[in-house]
Design brief:
The complex is a heterodimer.
Chain A (H helix, E strand, L loop, with lengths): L3 H8 L4 E5 L2 E6 L4 H10 L5 E9 L10 E9 L4 E9 L5 E3 L8 H12 L2 E3 L42
Parallel strand pairs in A: 2-5, 6-7
Antiparallel strand pairs in A: 1-2, 3-4, 4-5
Chain B lengths: L13 H10 L4 E5 L2 H10 L22 E5 L7 H10 L5 E5 H6 L20 E3 L6 H18 L5 H4 L12 H10 L16
Parallel strand pairs in B: 1-2, 2-3, 3-4
Helix pairs in contact in B: 1-5, 2-5
Classes of the chains: A alpha/beta, B alpha/beta.
The structure holds iron/sulfur cluster.
């Protein structure tokens, strides 16, 4: 089991741990995120990155930050899971990439970028992964309307005469 | 017959002959993007056996097909592909929109899903259902065969008059226009596209 006091001694006391049943979450400030994840990868044996995802806390009660980026980690030997949560803010939400630690982060970071517009500095190929390349919005942000801004109607109409 | 034809010769019109041939050998192009595709496969396989209606030759090359079956939801990224496939199919060609999603977007009323393929390509026949049963799709194909037999012509003259888009206009156009005026978004090229018929 990861020891939070040891982590706090190493990365500062802003680190906090919350727990619900067997779900353990470390909240970490953005500037220390890469150092912490690197430590978890190299020293604590979290050799598998399960997922990277994000949450938009716009208009969330008592929320102080706009986006939370969540790294789900798994230690395959010990079977231990850990969630690392990092908050980033507008206007340019940016985090360092973890592609150098886990290669699987490649597409996950592209997905987070595509859906939330959070950039990952140092990512080798940060393009959209799901939406079309011409798409200009970040659809999972809470200020983006569910029905879009007319993208789905913006195509040429083919009639029998032109086909 | 007064002309005295030999026994194995009969007279017909070229249109009728062409229609008879075409309607009984529809070659479908399966555009199966979602769950309706599974039902389309079931329709083609032994239990429902689309071969009974001459439409079993599913070709995955649009150049060899004359019936496009859009089975499943079409997202905005896929629509240009669908349009290109439609344009690549040789005349005469028909299109069946299969299932609620292809006809109207179904329950997926979101930014990513096209609200009915008939807005952007011509559709001849709609098969409702979520998903339609194979029998329903077969009924649709029989209906299309009847239509080809009744209205088809040798050189596809019946298509020439159809210059209007078949599908409805987006319901939200008004809403979008209001939204655009209320909160203009700077530097959003898709949003500024002029062809939201003003
Ligand atoms: S109509 Fe129903 S079965 Fe067909 S693609 Fe849509 S959700 Fe799937």
């Amino acid at each position: 089991m990861i020891d939070i006091t040891a982590l706090q001694a190493q990365f500062g006391s802003e680190l906090s741990l919350s727990e619900f049943r067997d779900n353990r979450r470390v909240i970490c400030p953005a500037e220390k995120a890469h150092a912490l994840l690197s430590h978890l990868y190299h020293a604590a044996g979290f050799n598998y990155l399960v997922d990277i995802t994000a949450v938009d806390y716009l208009e969330w009660e008592n929320a102080t930050d706009r986006f939370g980026v969540i790294y789900a980690l798994l230690n395959m030997e010990a079977g231990e899971r850990l969630y690392v949560k990092v908050f980033v803010n507008d206007p340019h939400p940016t985090l360092p990439t973890v592609y150098n630690l886990w290669r699987g982060a490649d597409w996950m970071e592209r997905e987070v970028y595509d859906m939330f517009g959070i950039t990952f500095a140092g990512h080798p190929d940060l393009r959209r992964i799901l939406s079309p390349d011409e798409f200009t919005a970040f659809p999972l942000r809470k200020d983006y309307p569910l029905k879009g801004r007319g993208e789905r109607h913006n195509f040429p109409v083919i009639t029998r005469a032109d086909s | 017959m007064a002309v005295g034809l030999p026994e194995n010769v009969f007279l017909t019109k070229l249109d009728v002959a062409a229609n008879w041939v075409r309607s009984n050998s529809l070659w479908p192009m399966p555009f199966a993007t979602a769950c309706c595709g599974i039902e389309l496969m079931a329709t083609a396989s032994s239990r429902f056996d689309l071969a009974r209606f001459g439409a079993e030759v599913m070709r995955f090359s649009p150049r060899q097909c004359d019936l496009l079956i859009v089975a499943g939801r079409v997202v905005t990224k896929m629509l240009p592909v669908l349009q290109r496939i439609w344009l690549q199919m040789p005349e005469p060609k028909w299109c069946i929109s299969m299932g609620a999603c292809a006809c109207s977007g179904g329950v997926f009323d979101t930014y990513a899903v096209v609200q009915g393929v008939d807005r952007f390509i011509p559709v001849d026949l709609y098969v409702p259902g979520c998903p339609p049963r194979p029998e329903q799709l077969i009924a649709g194909i029989i209906e299309l065969q009847n239509r080809i037999k009744q209205t088809g012509t040798l050189n596809g003259r019946e298509f020439i008059q159809r210059t209007e888009a078949t599908g409805p206009e987006p319901l939200e156009l008004e809403e979008l226009r209001r939204l655009r005026q209320a909160t203009p978004v700077e530097g959003l090229p898709i949003f500024h596209a002029p062809d939201l018929k003003t």
